[in-house]
Amino acid sequence: MTGRRLTACTVVATLVAAFGGCTVIIAPPGDVEEDFSLSAPLDAAGSLLVDWGNGDVSVIVDDTVDQIAVTGTKRVLATSREAADEAMINFDIEIDSGDEDNPQTIVRFDAPQFDVAVIYVADVEVRVPAGITLTVESAAGTVRVQGNTNHTGITVENGDVVVLQQNGDADVDVGNGDVQIESMAGDVEVTGQTGRVTVSADPGETGSLTVAINVGSIALAVPADTPASLTLGTDVGSIDANLEGFNAEDVHATGKSLTATLNGGGGEIDARTNTGNVSFEALQP
Q1: Of 3, 62, 101, 219, which residue is the least packed, with the fewest Cβ within 10 Å?
Q2: How many C-beta neighbours within 10 Å does residue 284 have?
Q3: pLDDT, tens digit, for every residue of 231-270?
Q4: Could you tell me if 31 and 88 are in contact, meaning their C-beta atoms sit under 8 angstroms apart?
């Protein structure tokens, strides 16, 4: 992944300047957009990496496609139209293959890294066949994945993550941003620095649901018949666990922590935040 990285305080505006770590551009005279469309067969290993810079990423499982279809819009912001046009020439969206040790298909955001007078952004939609192993790595922007039926791994430095209709393990690591996951089956693991985490999941009889963040609230919901050991904790905040519907035993609760055995135990549910509230309840049928 290359290209200048945006932060949560990037403001689009005309000149490029730096103020306290935020990029400020005042109504750019150089603002150029270009659509792109690519397609390629999925690697035989069935593994896809989306290696992205700045911009929103949407990955959708589409049963009607038998290859990867990539569409979107590239945008370059610069101090002049001429500079933006020139920068666009060096801004590519590519589909590559991995090597023998790591066979996979790679959708890549490729832009110059150290051009301080130019910002490169691209919003992309990737349509893929069912059953892929998916990895998304993004610098800044919202990442949305819908309908995957295999492992999904997402790493985002600055931006929100939304995973819907997931059927397979999901691992999410976010620097700054909110996380929403709806998982129908599989383990779920979320780590992050700052942001709210909301997870509705069915980890099964021996699966795991773990969340660990520094600053932010956590809200979890699982089926009432889920067998698991439950651990909830916060250093600064409160615990709100509604155990109605569960067969809950060995319940030990304080204002900052709660442990319990649900439905005889089996899997693991563990949610911890340093600063923020934690809530837990049964999924509504």
Answers
A1: 101
A2: 9
A3: 999 999 999 999 999 999 999 999 899 999 999 999 999 9
A4: no
Name the percent of the chain in helix, strand, coil, to the closest 5. Answer: 5, 60, 40
DSSP-derived secondary structure for 148-159: --S-EEEEEEES
CA distance linking residue 280 with residue 231, whole number of Å:
10
Amino acid 101: pLDDT: 73
Distance CA(43)–CA(49), nearest Å, equals 11
What strands, in cross-sheet order, belong to the sheet with 179-185? 30-40, 68-78, 119-128, 57-61, 143-146, 161-167, 179-185, 197-201, 218-222, 278-282, 239-241
Distance CA 262, CA 256 (A): 19
Find the radius of gyration of the CA atoms of the chain.
21
209 close to 187: Cβ distance less than 8 angstroms: yes
User: Measuring CA to CA, which residue among 268, 187, 167 is closest to residue 226?
Assistant: 268
The per-residue pLDDT for range 52-76, each reduced to its tens digit, is 999 999 999 998 888 999 999 999 9
- 102: tokens are 């790591």
The predicted-structure confidence for 5-15, as pLDDT tens digits, reads as follows 444 334 344 33
